[in-house]
């Protein structure tokens, strides 16, 4: 089983309070917050350059689809989990094999999805 302790996370979330909550959850799981972004341009740049082990990606950034970030992460082979308040129906078909968390979510749900995507990469 994958150990989350020490893994570097990219958090992409446009709601400040939600981003802080997610970062706190990740820290509780033993992860490190490598970078955080609230807008598409910053998220794309960090997805291209940040030294990260995985990402948690809000699907909708202030009304703009975050699929360009997902594409960059996929090209880099960086595992990621979508977080969305719109349900899995909003996830584009080309990313349907990536797990999603429905907001609001709890710590155990976050842990389970991260383990799923990280084990898939190493498995």
From TrEMBL:
Response regulatory domain sequence ranges:
8-118
Pfam families, per the entry: Response_reg
Under the heading Gene3D superfamilies, the entry gives:
3.40.50.2300
Q: Which residues carry this modification: 4-aspartylphosphate?
A: 58
A biological process from GO:
phosphorelay signal transduction system
Keywords, A to Z, come to: Phosphoprotein
List the InterPro entries hit by this protein, alphabetically: Bact_response_regulator, CheY-like_superfamily, Sig_transdc_resp-reg_receiver
Q: What protein name is recorded for this chain? A: Response regulator
